[in-house]
Structure formats: C-alpha cells, structure tokens
Recover the amino acids of this structure.
C-alpha cells in the first residue's frame, strides 16, 4: 500500500469512520502538507493566529493552557485525530500544542479549508459530532474539578486515560503515555504531593501498578467502584 493510500485510509476510515464524502478526502490529500515534529517541539502557542488545522497521523500531542505562573494540561491527543476544531471560528488558538514524542501531522491552511467547507456545508455535521463529544468531555472534566475531591479528580482522570490511551497488558490496562506525578497534577489541578500520596494509596489497594512513569490499571471495574464510592462521599459532603 502506497503512502497516499495509507493516508487516505487514515482520514476516511480511522478519523471520520467513513462518514466523509470522497471529495473531502481528495481535498485534504491535495491541499494538505505532511509536517514532522520532534519531541518537545511546539506546533503553536496559546494566542497565536489560528491559521492551520491539523490531522495527527503519528505521535502524541499535549494540549494545555498557559498562565503567567502555571500550566494546565487539558488533553493528550493520540492518532489519528483532527485538531483543533475551535479554530474553525477564525480566532486565535486558545491553548498550546506540544509534541510529547516525535509526531507526523497533515497540515492544511485554515482559509483554504474553510472555503471547501463553505461550498460543501454537509461536512459540518461530521465535525459537529466531534465537537459535541469534546464538549461533553469538557463538561465532565469541569464537573470532576469543581465538585470532586482530590481522590475523585485523580481517579476519574486515570480511568479516562486508561480508556483513551490504554492497551491490554499481562497485568491489566497499561496507560501508554508517560505520567509523571507533575503532569498528572497539572491535569487534575492538584499539588504534586497530593497526587503522589493518592497514587500510593491506589497502589496499596492494588488498583494500579506504577513502574517509573508508567501506570497500569489492574482492574477497571475496581477503579470504577473506587471512583463511585468517592463520588458518593463527595455528594454527601456537599449535602
């Protein structure tokens, strides 16, 4: 299979689940340019002009908000995926994008992209479904951060990461991205010390295993039950 055929399959089947018309895939292949990035290289920063849309082909990319004194990781992207949907409105990038390993993307000029969409409005429905999923994910994250205690926040984040970035291993579900306590703390808006303490508790309960920066969830059902109990405790505390 040629490189173009592989890329066509990724776009048509893996990113858009065969819901996009062939004309859209042809457009992406004709106007997109493959770019290669190395680990720790930025694609863009928060506030930069939103002039490019991307399809992540290989590698992983971290999206995060940047403050004057802190950073908040909001999502880790695994291929294949289209991003960032929010720049379809023509405004600046609301977050930064950093490669956490070598990555390959298909990049398309936003103005060129939008001209095609304006002439073929039916494709917007496919993007709408993706935006709706991201919005639901954001609501869930806001709920966990605002209503949950520290254990609930971290447990819910580990559970979500196991679903998105997990793969079966001999012991359970291995989360395939490095997860040092500092990055987990940033994802959950917690202190690093709190994250380390809670990870230790989960390890003692034999819910997770930790080896260096890798986390394995030994049993997702046990983690789910632990989260459920923490959620019930949080609700009773609020009431």
């Amino acid at each position: 299979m040629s490189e173009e055929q592989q890329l066509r399959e990724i776009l048509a089947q893996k990113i858009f689940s065969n819901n996009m018309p062939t004309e859209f895939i042809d457009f992406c292949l004709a106007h997109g340019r493959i770019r290669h990035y190395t680990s720790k290289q930025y694609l863009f920063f928060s506030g930069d002009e939103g002039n490019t849309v991307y399809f992540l082909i290989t590698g992983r990319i971290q999206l995060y908000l940047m403050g004057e004194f802190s950073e908040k990781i909001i999502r880790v992207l695994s291929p294949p995926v289209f991003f960032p949907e929010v720049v379809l409105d023509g405004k600046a990038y609301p977050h930064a994008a950093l490669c956490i390993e070598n990555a390959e993307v298909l990049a398309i000029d936003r103005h060129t992209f939008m001209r095609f969409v304006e002439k073929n409005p039916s494709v917007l429905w496919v993007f709408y479904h993706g935006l709706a999923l991201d919005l639901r994910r954001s609501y869930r994250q806001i709920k966990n951060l605002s209503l949950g205690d520290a254990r609930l926040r971290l447990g819910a984040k580990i559970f979500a990461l196991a679903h998105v970035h997990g793969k079966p291993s001999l012991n359970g579900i291995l989360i395939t991205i490095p997860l040092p306590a500092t990055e987990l703390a940033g994802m959950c808006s917690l202190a690093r010390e709190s994250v380390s303490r809670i990870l230790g508790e989960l390890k003692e309960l034999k819910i997770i295993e930790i080896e260096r920066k890798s986390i394995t969830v030994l049993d997702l059902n046990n983690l789910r039950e632990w989260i459920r109990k923490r959620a019930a405790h949080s609700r009773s505390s609020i009431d």
Q: What stands out?
A: The mean pLDDT is 86. The longest strand covers residues 52-58. Helices lie at 3-15, 22-31, 110-119, 124-147, 150-165, 181-188, 192-204, 220-238.
